[in-house]
Amino acid sequence: MDKLKRPQSLTEQAYREIKRSIINNEVEPLAYLAEEKIANNLGISRTPIREALKQLAFEGLVELRKGSKARVSSVSPEDALDYQLLRERLESLSAELAANYTTERDIRELIEITEQQDKSLELKDYHQFIELDYQFHSKIAELSNNKKLVEFINYLNLQVQRFLVLSNTLSDSGIEAVDEHYVIIEMLQKQESEQAGVTMQNHIKNVTRRIFGHSKTKEDTK
Prior knowledge:
Elements: H1 10-23, E1 32-33, H2 35-42, H3 46-58, E2 62-63, E3 70-72, H4 77-98, H5 104-122, H6 126-143, H7 147-167, H8 170-189, H9 193-212
Antiparallel strand pairs: 1-3, 2-3
Helix pairs in contact: 1-3, 4-6, 4-7, 4-9, 5-6, 5-8, 6-7, 8-9
């Protein structure tokens, strides 16, 4: 017999809904998150809301301070550049390691994600595009077989996702990103570790260029 799939708890559902609203910038950075209001909107008690906010604080999406309401954390251009620089190093490493473990089944999954990204661009569903982008990079990180690398990369991607939405660049840059994903997949399929790392690093650099218009340093954002 197969194990029964456990339905999502109220905390998990609340976590996903609050997280979605933050990533999509439906709740503005530094806006306060009133537990009672969220509970009323979702039709549940405040307890699962409180637990969900703790998880989101752990991920860096929410600020929790004693004696004060929870509020959405902010992402400045300087922060985004810092995150992108870290992504260059960490994600190139993850791609390099992943090339040693990637199977044909993994390749098919990555291709499917990228094809869905292409479709989301056709539909102008940019929020869906960003969610799929997260899945793509998270999948490659998982293939590195390094749990800490997965944690760091997922955290960085969560932060950058919000800035991508605010940048309003996806309608023009999404096609390039999809093309670059296919090249990364090709390197993984060929198990060319070094090239997989270089290709991923170039992709992240191009994302930074597309967000800011050109290659910037922190000084350029001041």
